[in-house]
Amino acid sequence: MSVELIKPGVNFDFIGNRRWAFLFSGILIAASLVSVIAHKGLNLGVDFQGGSLIQARFASQSADPESVRATLSDAGLRVSSVQDYGEGGEREYLINIQNLEGTGDQALSSLAIAALKAAFGEDGVEIRRQEMVGPRVGADLRQKALYAVYYSVLIIIIYISGRFEQKWGTSLAFSAILLGIIYVVSLFGVGVGTLIITALIVTCITCYFMRFSFALGGIIALMHDVIITTGVFSFLNKEITLSFVAAILTIIGYSLNDSIIVFDRIRENRSRNRRGNYPEIINRSINETLSRTILTSGTTLFALLSLYFLGGPVNQDFALALTIGIAIGTFSSIFIASPILLLWESKAGPAPDAGTTKAGAKAGSAKAGAGPPKPEADSAKA
Amino acid sequence: MIQNLTWRGVLLVLVLGAGFYSALPSFLPPKDKDSSFLRALLPDRTISLGLDLKGGISLTMEVDMEAALRNSARRSADTLRRSVSDEKLAGVTVENEDSLDILVRYPDPAARQAVLDLLDKSYYGLEVKNDAEGVLTVVQTSEEASDVRSLTGRQALETIRNRVDMFGVAEPDIRPQGEDRILIQLPGFDDPARAVELIGRTAVLEFKLVDDGPKTAEEAQRTGAPPGTQVYQEKITDPATGAESFVPILLRKQTLMTGDTLTDARAYVGDFGDPRVSIRFDGRGAREFGDITDRYINRRLAIVLDDIVYSAPVIEARIPDGEAYIRGSFTMEEARLLSVVLRAGALPAPVSVIEERTVGPSLGEDSIRQGLQAGGLGLLLILVFLLYYYRWSGMVADLALLMNFPIVLGALAALGATLTLPGIFGLVLTLAMAVDANILIFERIREETRRDRPPLAAVSGGFGRAFWTIFDANITTVLAAMVLYQFGSGPIRGFAVTLIIGILSSMFTGVFASRFVFDLALTRLRPKRISI
After folding, report:
1. Which helix (H) or strand (E) holds B183?
2. In chain A, which residues have their Cβ closer than 8 Å to the Cβ of B532?
3. Which of A51, A274, B274, B460 has its CA 20 to 30 A from that of B424?
4. Greater model confidence, B389 or B31
C-alpha cells in the first residue's frame, strides 16, 4: 500500500469556513500593520538606509556586544546594532553603523576598524566582511525594490487573466494604462512607497470591477503573504535587507505557483461539470489538490529549515523569510486565493461564465454550503 | 509517446552528456595548469565563484559630473578669454568663478555684438543663457555638456582600469553602470581602504610657487589670502613618532606645471631611508620643468597632489633632465600606490565611493561549506522522503531530481554565470520546488489508478493532465525571477539566474525525463500495478 498523507475521499469544508480563515488572516494582517507602526516603520538595513556594516571576529573573550558598542561609541560613531554572529562560542559580531552627516562614508568603516583594533589588539580582530552603502544608493535600491514588486504583480495579472480567462487584450491594455499613470504621477515627485501602495490598491479595485477573478485571487493571496512575512520580520525586529527582497520576490513566485495549481484544478473541474455550483467546485478542487499542496510545501520546508539551521548566520534571515512566506503561502493558497473567486457570486450573482444559473448558487455561496457529505442537499435546504 | 522511446532516450542522454561536458571543467584545475589532451577537449568556460564566496571587494564609484562640468566651463572660459584678446575686443572681460556660468562683461553694444559673433562660430559649445544690460551669462550647450559627461565617464573608466592593471589584481571586473557610476570588483583583495586609495584618488599633480610676500600663511588664513595666492595645507610627518599633521602654507594660485607630461613614476627608498616617488617627464615636460627651475631658482616650489602639499623644496639648481622626486610623509606601501596612481594618470573628475562590499576569504570559505552542508542535508531529506512516500516511483522522482545537477551546473558554466551564496540557496530551493512537478504528476497517477486504470494509461493520463498545470505554475515563478534579475545586483542576480535555470531544468527532468523512465520501466517490466 502506498503511504497517503491525505486520504482520497477527503472533503474538508474550506469554503464553508472561509469567514474564519478571512478573520484569521485579517487579524494577522492587522497585527503586521500594528507592528510596523509600533516599530516606527520597518527596520531598514544598510542596503536601503545607507550606512556601514562590519562583521568582525574577535580573539579576545572580553569582546562582548556591549564593549564593542562602547568602543565604537567612544570613537564618535553611531552604532545602530551589534548582532551576535558567532557559532560554537566564536566571538563574532555584525556591527551596523549609521552614516554621519558630513563625514565621508568611506572613512567611517576605517575609523571603526581602527577603533576596534586599538581596543582589542591589532591581531585580535579579524574583519570578515565590510559593507558601505551611501545614502543615495540606499534610496535607489529602496525604489528599485518597490518597483520590482509592483512590476511582478502587473506581469502576473496579465499572465493569469490571459491564461485563465482569455483576457489577454484587456489585461494588457489595463496594465499599460496603469504603468502610464504611475509614470506620470512619479513625475510629480510623489514618494515611491506611497505611489506603489496606492497603485496596488487601485490595481486590486480595478481587477474587481474588470472581473479578473483569478488574477485578483492570486494577487490578494500574494499580498497577504508578503504583508504577513514583512509583519513577522517587523515583529521580530529583523532587518530588511536586499536578500529579504529577494526572498519576498521568491515568495511571490511560490505563492502564485501554489494558487495557480488550485486555479487550474478549478478550471478543469468547471469545464467538466458546467452544471455544478461554483462554491462546491472550488471546495472540491481545493481538496483534490490538498495533498500536493501540503507535500510540496513540506519538501520545500525541509530544504529551508536545513538552510536555516546549517546555512550559517549570514543567510539565516533569508531562510527565515522564505520559511515564513512559504508556510503562509500554503495557507493562503487554500483559504484565501480560491475563496476570492466567490466575491462576484454572492454580490452580483454567478460570474457570467460560471455556468450556474440556479438561484441556489447565491444562497449556496452565502451559506457556503459545500460541505460533506451531501453538498447539494445542503444548499437546497438553504 | 511509447513508440519513440529510443529517440527520447537518445535526447535525454544527449542533454545529460552536454551538461556533464559543460560542467566538468569547473571541477578540474584551470586549463593552463593541465595541458593534457583530454583537458583540451573540454570547454573553457567555467562557473566562477562570486565575491561573497571567493572573498574580495566590490566598489561602486560615482564620478562627480558637476565638477567635470565646472572644469570644462573653466576651460571654455579660458579659450573664450584668449579669443577675446586675440580679437582685441577692448573692455570685454570673461569671468568664471568655479561655476557653470561664464560672465562676459562688455562696455558697449558693438562689443556685445562682437562677443555674440564670436560665440556664433559655435565651436566653443557655448550659448547665451541670460542677456542683461552690460553682461552676458554664457553656459555650455546641452550637447556640449552631455559630451563632457560621456567623455568624463569613459576617461574615468579607462584610468581606473589602468590603475588596477598596473597594481596587479587578478581577474578584476570593471564596468560602467549608467553614465556616472563605475562598478569595480576585485577578487581576492580584502583591504578596502587601500583599494579606495588606489582607485578613488583624483591624482592631480601640480607644481606651484610658494608665496614669499610679507603675509605669513597663518595670517593669510585668518585675514584672507592676498590676491593671486591661496592657503594650502602641507602634510608633515614627525620622523620620530610618525604622527601626521597639517600646517598651512601660502602658494601662488597659478599652476606652473601639471603631471600631464609625466611618463614614469617609481617608488624607491631615499638617502635617509625615507620612501620617495621618483617622477620623470617626457621631452616637452622636461624642457618646461627645466625652464621653471631655471626661472625660479632659489625659490620654493610646492609639489601639490590633490590639493595637499607634499613637499616644498628650494630649487637649488636648474633641473634639465626632467627628473624629480616627491618626498613626503608616506610609508613604502603608500609610495608604491602613489607611483601607480601617478603613472596611470589623473582622473578627469573626482570620484567617490558610494557602495562598498568586502568579504574576507575566511568568510567566503565558511559560506561555501555551510551552503553545501545545508543544501546537501535538505536535498537528502527530500530524496529519502520521496522514496518513502512514493516507493519505486519515488525512485524515479529522485533520479529526476539528481539529473538536475549536471543540467543546471552545465548551463551555469555555459553561460559563464557566477555562483553566489544566494545562488546556492536558489539552487537548493529550486530543487526542493522541482519535486513539485513529480508530486503533481504522481498525485494525478494515483487518482487515475484509483479509477482502476491500467498502469500505462494511468501514467499517460497523469502526465498529460499535470503538464499544463506544471507549465502555468512554473512560468509565473520564472516571470517573478526575471523581474528579480532586472532589479538586482551582484549576489541577487546570481540567485535569479540559478532560479530560472533551475526551474527550466526541473521542468525538463520532472516531465520529460521521469516520463521516459516510467515508460521504459512499464514497457520492459510490465508490472500489474504501479508502486506509487
Report:
1. strand B181-187
2. 2
3. A51
4. B389
Indicate the CATH number for domain B5-53+360-525: 1.20.1640.10
Look at A48-62, A239-253, B480-494 and tell me which has the smallest mean pLDDT: B480-494
User: What is the location of CATH 3.30.1360.200 in chain B?
Assistant: 201-358
Closest CA to A17 of A340, A381, A368: A368
Here the ipTM equals 0.79
- Stretch 270-329 of chain A: residues touching chain B, C-beta under 8 Å: 288-289, 291-292, 295-296, 298-300, 302-307, 309-312, 314-315, 318-319, 322
SS (H, E, C) B115-135: HHHHHHCCCCCEEEEEEECCE
CA distance B444 to chain A (A): 9
Query: What are the beta bridge partners of residue A84?
Result: A93
Name the residue facing A155 among B428, B468, B479 (closest C-beta): B479
Q: How many CB pairs under 8 A join A and B?
A: 228
Q: Is B355 within 8 Å of A132 when comparing Cβ atoms?
A: yes
Using the beta-carbon criterion (under 8 Å), do A314 and B367 form an inter-chain contact? yes
Q: Which three cell numbers stand for residue A382?
A: 438553504
Q: Is B531 helix (H, G, I), strand (E, B) or coil?
A: coil
- Say whether A318 and B474 touch across the interface (CB within 8 A): no
Give yes or no for residue A247 having a pLDDT over 90. no
- DSSP letters along A260-322, please? HHHHHHHHHHHHH-SSS-HHHHHHHHHHHHHHHHHHHHHHHHHHHHHHHHHS-GGGHHHHHHH
Architecture of domain B66-145: Alpha-Beta Complex (3.90)
- pLDDT tens for B50-62 read 888 888 999 999 9
Together in a domain, A34 and A121: no
CB contact under 8 A, A105 and B354: yes
Same domain membership, residue A95 and residue A129: yes
A257/B193 CB distance under 8 A = no
Q: Is the pLDDT of residue B407 over 90?
A: yes
| pTM value > 0.80 | no
Phi-psi group of B119: left, alpha or beta (phi > 0 → left; psi -120 to 50 → alpha; rest → beta) = alpha
Reading the block at residue A38, the C-alpha cell is 509600533
Q: Do B363 and A314 touch (CB under 8 A)?
A: yes
Length of chain A: 382
Min distance A302 CA to chain B CA atoms (Å): 6
Determine the pLDDT at residue B28: 80
What pLDDT is recorded for position A262?
92
Closest-CA residue to A108 (of A96, A120, A119): A96
Q: Is B452 helix (H, G, I), strand (E, B) or coil?
A: coil
Q: Where do the H-state alpha helices sit in B237-360?
A: 283-295, 332-344
As a whole number of angstroms, the distance between CA B26 and CA B35 comes to 16
Q: What is the pLDDT of residues B71-92, one digit of tens each?
A: 888 888 888 888 888 888 888 8
Distance from the A267 Cα atom to the nearest Cα atom in chain B, whole angstroms? 11
Distance CA A43, CA A314 (A): 17
- Please, which residues 82-101 of chain B have a Cβ atom closer than 8 Å to chain A? none
CA dist., res. B451 & res. B362, Å (int): 58
Indicate the SS3 state at residue B298. Answer: coil
Cα separation of A161 and A219, whole Å? 11
CA distance linking residue B372 with residue B501, whole number of Å: 19
Q: Do A254 and B433 touch (CB under 8 A)?
A: yes
**Is A184 inside any structural domain?**
no
Q: Which grid cell sits at B475? A: 512560468
Q: Domain for residue A144, yes or no?
A: no
Give CATH 1.20.1640.10 domain extents, chain B. 5-53+360-525
Rounded to whole angstroms, how far apart are CA atoms B488 and B284? 49
